[in-house]
C-alpha cells in the first residue's frame, strides 16, 4: 500500500462547497476520435475528463456550484453511471466527447444520450485496483506509473474499469473499492492505494527438491578378461557354494592352552587302522624282497692291476 498526493487549483480563490442549484442536462456523446479539428486530442483518452459545449460553461457560471466541477454521467437505458471531471468547453452544442473506456463502462454507442449532472463528492482516503491482465506486472514501478496516470483523473467510481496509457500500451484496471464512499474525488487528497492480484494471474508453483545423496563412483582397474600365452582359454571358476551352518563342525578345545604360548597344530589325516592280516602280508612282502637281494653282489674294481705294479 502506498500514498498518492494530488493537488488541483482551478481558481486562486475557490468557492465554498455548498451550492443552491444543480446543473443537469442531456447530450449526445461521441468518442474523442470524432472530435473535429486538426489537433490531436489523445490526451482525453489518457484520463477521466470530458469535453463539453460552451453553453454548459455559461450555465455553470451562473450557478452556485462547487469547484473543481465534478459530474455524474448516467445512461438511463442501461442504468449505468460513472463520475468525471471536465477538461474543456469546446464541443459543438448538444454534444459532449468522452474517453473510450468511459463509454464502454456506460454501455454507450456513438451518438447515444447521456445525462450529465453536477455533483459534490467526498475526498478519497483509500482505493484498491485490480489489473485486468498479468502484463501489468511487467511494469518496473507500477506505483509511480499509476500515480502519474491518476493526475489526469478528477474522481473514481467503484466498479469502473479505467484505462491508463504507459509506454505506448493501454493497461486496464478495475476500481475494486474506494473510501469513504463509492464515488470519491481525488483532487487535493492524500490517498492510500492498494493492488489486487491481476485477473487471470496464477502463482508459480514451488517445487521442493529433496537433497541429493552423494554419488559414490567405483573405479574398477584392469577390467576385462585375461588371455593366456599359449592361446588357451582360461577356465571359468565355478561360483562358491554357500556353506550350510549344519555342515560346520566344532573341534575339541585345547585345555592345556596357556596365555603367552602359541601352538601350531598341523592337521593330518589319520591313518587307517591295520588289521592282523595286513601286518602278515607286509612281513611276507619284506621277506620276499630280502631273499632276492644279495649284498655286495657287484664286481669290484681295484686300483692295482693284477700281476703288475702299483700305479
Q: What can be said about this structure in brief?
A:
It is built from 5 helices and 14 strands. With 311 residues, the protein is of the alpha/beta class.
Quaternary organisation? single chain
Spans of at least 5 consecutive residues with low confidence:
7-19
Overall spatial form? rod-shaped
Q: C-alpha Rg, in Å?
A: 58 Å
Mean pLDDT rating: 77
Protein described:
This protein is of the alpha/beta class. Helices cover 14% and strands 26% of the residues. The protein has five helices and 14 strands. The protein has helices spanning 42-45, 54-61, 100-106, 142-149, 276-292, and strands at 2-6, 24-31, 49-51, 70-75, 80-88, 95-98, 112-119, 122-123, 126-131, 155-157, 161-166, 169-179, 183-185, 189-195. A six-stranded mixed beta sheet has the order 3-5-4-7-2-6. Strand 4 and strand 5 form a beta hairpin. It is rod-shaped and about 175 Å long. Mean pLDDT is 77; it is low at 7-19.
Name the features.
Ubiquitin recognition factor in ER-associated degradation protein 1, single chain, polyubiquitin modification-dependent protein binding, 311 residues, 5 helices, five-stranded mixed beta sheet, rod-shaped, six-stranded mixed beta sheet, alpha/beta
Secondary structure: elements and pairs:
Blueprint lengths: L1 E5 L17 E8 L10 H4 L3 E3 L2 H8 L8 E6 L4 E9 L6 E4 L1 H7 L5 E8 L2 E2 L2 E6 L10 H8 L5 E3 L3 E6 L2 E11 L3 E3 L3 E7 L80 H17 L19
Parallel strand pairs: 2-6, 3-5, 8-13, 9-14
Antiparallel strand pairs: 1-14, 2-7, 4-5, 4-7, 9-12, 10-13, 11-12
Pathway: Protein degradation; proteasomal ubiquitin-dependent pathway
Pfam family, one: UFD1_N2
Protein name: Ubiquitin recognition factor in ER-associated degradation protein 1
Amino acid at each position: 500500500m502506498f500514498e498518492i498526493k494530488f493537488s488541483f487549483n482551478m481558481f486562486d480563490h475557490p468557492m465554498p462547497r455548498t451550492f443552491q442549484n444543480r446543473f443537469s442536462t442531456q447530450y449526445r456523446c461521441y468518442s474523442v476520435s470524432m472530435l473535429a479539428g486538426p489537433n490531436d486530442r489523445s490526451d482525453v483518452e489518457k484520463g477521466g475528463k470530458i469535453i463539453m459545449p460552451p453553453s454548459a460553461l455559461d450555465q455553470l457560471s451562473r450557478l452556485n456550484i462547487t469547484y473543481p466541477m465534478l459530474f455524474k454521467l448516467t445512461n438511463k437505458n442501461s442504468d449505468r453511471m460513472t463520475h468525471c471531471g471536465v477538461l474543456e468547453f469546446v464541443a459543438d452544442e448538444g454534444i459532449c466527447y468522452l474517453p473510450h473506456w468511459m463509454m464502454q463502462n456506460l454501455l454507450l454507442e456513438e451518438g447515444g444520450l447521456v445525462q450529465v449532472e453536477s455533483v459534490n463528492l467526498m475526498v478519497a482516503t483509500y482505493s484498491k485496483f485490480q489489473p485486468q491482465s498479468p502484463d501489468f506486472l511487467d511494469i518496473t514501478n507500477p506505483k509511480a506509473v499509476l500515480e502519474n496516470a491518476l493526475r489526469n483523473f478528477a474522481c473514481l467510481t467503484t466498479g469502473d474499469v479505467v484505462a491508463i496509457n504507459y509506454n505506448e500500451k493501454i493497461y486496464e484496471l478495475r476500481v475494486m473499492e474506494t473510501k469513504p464512499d463509492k464515488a470519491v474525488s481525488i483532487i487535493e487528497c492524500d490517498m492510500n492505494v492498494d493492488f489486487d492480484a491481476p485477473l487471470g494471474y496464477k502463482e508459480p508453483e514451488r517445487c521442493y527438491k529433496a537433497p541429493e545423496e552423494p554419488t559414490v563412483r567405483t573405479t574398477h582397474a584392469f577390467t576385462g578378461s585375461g588371455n593366456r600365452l599359449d592361446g588357451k582359454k582360461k577356465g571359468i571358476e565355478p561360483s562358491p557354494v554357500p556353506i550350510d551352518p549344519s555342515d560346520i563342525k566344532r573341534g575339541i578345545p585345547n585345555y592345556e592352552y596357556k596365555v603367552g604360548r602359541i601352538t601350531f597344530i598341523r592337521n593330518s589325516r589319520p591313518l587307517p587302522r591295520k588289521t592282523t592280516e595286513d601286518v602278515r602280508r607286509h612281513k611276507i612282502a619284506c621277506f620276499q624282497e630280502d631273499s632276492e637281494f644279495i649284498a655286495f653282489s657287484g664286481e669290484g674294481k681295484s686300483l692295482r692291476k693284477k700281476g703288475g705294479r702299483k700305479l
